[in-house]
Structure prediction request, 805 residues.
Amino acid sequence: MIRNYFKTALRSLLRNKGFTFINIFGLAAGTFCCLYILLYVQDQYSYDRHETDVKNIYRLNVVNSGMGNRRNFAISATPAGPALKQNFPEVAQYTRVVPFIGVDRHLVVYRDKNIWEKDAFIVDSTFFDIFTYHRISGNLKTALADPYTVVLLKPVADKLFGAADPMGKTITIDNTWGRHDYLVTGVVDESLGKSHLHANIFIGGNIPRMGQYMPQNTSWASNAFISTYVKLRPGTNVAALERKFPALVEKYASGDLKKWGTHMELYLQPLTSIHTTAGLDNAGIGQPVNPSFLNLLAVIAGLIQLIACINFMNLSTARASKRAKEIGVRKVIGAQRITLMNQFLAESFLFTLLAVLLALPLMILAMPWLDRLTGTTVDISLLSNVRVWGILVGLTLATGLLAGSYPAFYLSAFNAIRVIKGNFTNHISASGIRRALVVMQFVLSIVLVTGILVVYAQLNYIRNKDLGFSPDQRIVFTFNSQGAFDHLSSFMEDVRQLAGIKEVSNASQYLGNPTLYNNSFMLPGQTTDESKNAEYVLADRYFLAANGVGLISGRDFREGDSDRVLINASFARHLGLDPYKAEGVRLHDDQGRQFEIIGVMKDFNFASLRYEVNNFLVWINNPAYGLWPTVTVHANTNSYKDLLKEIAAVWKKDVPGIPFEYTFMDDAVQKQYETDITMSRVINAFTLIAILISSLGLFGLAAFSAEQKYKEIGIRKVLGASVPAVVRLLSKEFLLLVLISWIIASPVAWWAMNKWLQGFAYQIGIHWWMFGLAGVIALGIALVTVSFQSIRAALMNPVKALRSE
Prediction:
């Protein structure tokens, strides 16, 4: 019976090639998009799930409140991990991970090979007791037990050693924290799965500065930049364990917290949720994806698949008149309604199966383009995952059932005697439902088009908004190795002499990068409870000029200044000062250091425009601290190519043996909106596909409408109707449906985009022209699509339509 269903369905497909092409192509395009998005979302949620005993691994997070704010941190104090293991038998093991704060890259040297590598972490020797990597060589249980040992990711080992065995070899790691030799004690790869803790280099033991300091730091309220992970014993009640944390904080941290005027809460975050949790301060460990972005992608996938299903339903019911006599004959010879329903569902499932078989190779071929679109690499091996195949089977069944259900119920309900007599007429209800489905298609398309316009306008606003400083024509050099850092001063002086250079400044970081330092500051006579938190950079006296930051009162730094600070207007107001009269006011921090305010800067957005301007302070660099690893060069040239050649020559002279690298500050600023830019690209691409699918369906319906009115058009032409009159006759109904779609879609689009814009502290207004333009675009697409069939019908020879009469 089932074989007969599919044989009949196949014959029907081959007999109606145009209908078959439109439906299979539409379903394939929808499935292609839907499948990739599902794979992408599945890939993002798969992070860390390969870990052994993953259900018992958690990260210790901290909520700090006080000084007028409340912040959620994915980092904790140095002694937190040992205290948890010591005080709670539920904790089987802990490990700590420390990023090289302020270091973008590390120079790794082996003999005559020098390579730059990102993502190096300092870890406890227990790291591989908790986290699972595929071991290539070495004993991971003991690999990091000794001082100055290192485990490398396989690609790094391959670049350094080629086919040679890296075990027991000594490499040199050079960065702004220092230069030291390390013994290679292990090599691993990430073939088991993706981790939010992606690193190329794992360093264990006592290393210069941080490693020697980390185990000895007993403060719970300062230098908290470590990620602490714990593995709990099986069966542990996590909620019950967390209820014990306040007593732990009181026992160990109450003194520090009172001194700093803050309150601390500890909680455990499941490892599998880390990659998909945004909004935590994570001190440079991992790049979490915003779950709202994943939800948006899932919604887009569902909408595109729904549009493709609507096409199938519309075209199937529109062709009902051609199937009417077939259904009547089948009923007369004894076919039950359930049998006919199964027949039409079989056709739907066959269409869907063919669409999936077409979509799979298309998606694999397009994977590189799709990965560039989403800014990630979806692991194609996910297609071998049983869960993914379950999703694929579920998608096929759901699509087949959704697309085929209405045609099956509608077509199987025909009255056998009436249709055999030729009295079949299209039901008003079916025609009405088809119109409703067309409206739904275009509602979804118009919402997506409006989304494109709003997102583009917001990103354009971000690109052109006055940030309060000027990232244009600023070139940033980061001295990531000690070897390079030793030549920083001479490099700055030589670059300053070049034509086309307006200013050169040295600072602890460059604007557009996350701020590394923050502290609590108070006016004379105030306590820590009255203090205000501010982020700050340490910089030389050229900082304002090099970055284009303006003053509203006071003066800039001068040579010889010490313990002088510039604050922004927001910080002045939060301190209760008049920004125009703050010059000369004294400040002190929670460590007792004294400062004098010499000027107030205009507020500038040193962070993303998603956030309001925070309190900010520039502290004149104390010579005792030495230089800092970041140099900002303000250029004024019409030929960056020539200028960069000159700077490269200076680098080669002053910093020999170190690769020449640089960053444009405006690129760094734009990187803050990487997720939004990716979202814009994704919406653009998939909206175009959604419109293409909708247009295909409209094209098919227009062809059907022209076929239905074939003789009517012939009569009208004989009676003198012009081509434009016939085109209007066939087009007006579809254009009216698009107009209704626009009326429905506009408030939906306004609500959706208003919700998205709420994520920005600085945002555009949603203007009427955005909805109008979306409607005009939809109307234009519909007009072009329908007009092709309408003009074709209007130009036909009326004799051919009427000769049978």
